[in-house]
Amino acid sequence: MQENKGTISLGILLMVGFSLIAPAMDASAKLIGDALAVGQIVAARFGVQAAILLPLALLLGWLHRPGGREAALHLVRGGLILLATACFFQALRFMPIADAIAIFFVEPFILTLLGGVFLGEPIGPRRYAACAVGFVGALFVIQPSFSDVGLAALLPLVTAVCFAFYMILTRRMAASMHPISMQAYTGLAALVLILPPLWVFDGSGVAALDPSWPEQRELMLLAAVGLIATASHVCISFALKLAPASVLAPVQYLEIVGATVLGYVIFGDLPDALTFFGIALIVSAGLYVFFRERRLERRPMPAP
Question: pTM score, two decimals?
Answer without folding.
Answer: 0.85
